[in-house]
Design brief:
The protein has about 110 residues and is of the alpha+beta class. It is built from two helices and five strands.
């Protein structure tokens, strides 16, 4: 089964977040076709979470928490991931309510 190119997925995600009034920023651009994607959610209280896609045993691709805690710690985990994979996209969203929309239909 083919997957949507990373750049197109990021564009669709950005538009979905903006439609819900959630500020979204591209922290780092990765490979437009096959780059992996991290999503950082900052809740504007000094805390954050970073999500990454994993491949489950059943072949599904759910989002999993890569790092969670104080925002500087999450930023450090993202920086380590970027050093390991320079083709990695980092999408940053800010929402006091903790909305990330990653479980929304059409974003899988």
């Amino acid at each position: 089964m083919s997957r949507l190119a990373a750049g197109l997925w990021v564009d669709a995600y950005r538009l979905r977040c903006e439609a819900e009034g959630i500020p979204v920023y591209i922290g780092a651009r990765g490979d437009a076709t096959a780059g992996a994607i991290l999503v950082k959610l900052a809740t504007l209280d000094g805390r954050a979470r970073a999500f990454q896609r994993i491949t489950a045993l059943d072949g599904s691709r759910p989002w999993d928490v890569l790092a969670e805690g104080d925002e500087p710690e999450v930023d450090a985990a993202i920086a380590r991931a970027r050093r390991f994979d320079p083709d990695l996209w980092v999408v940053e969203i800010e929402d006091r309510l903790g909305r990330h929309l990653l479980d929304s239909p059409g974003l899988d």
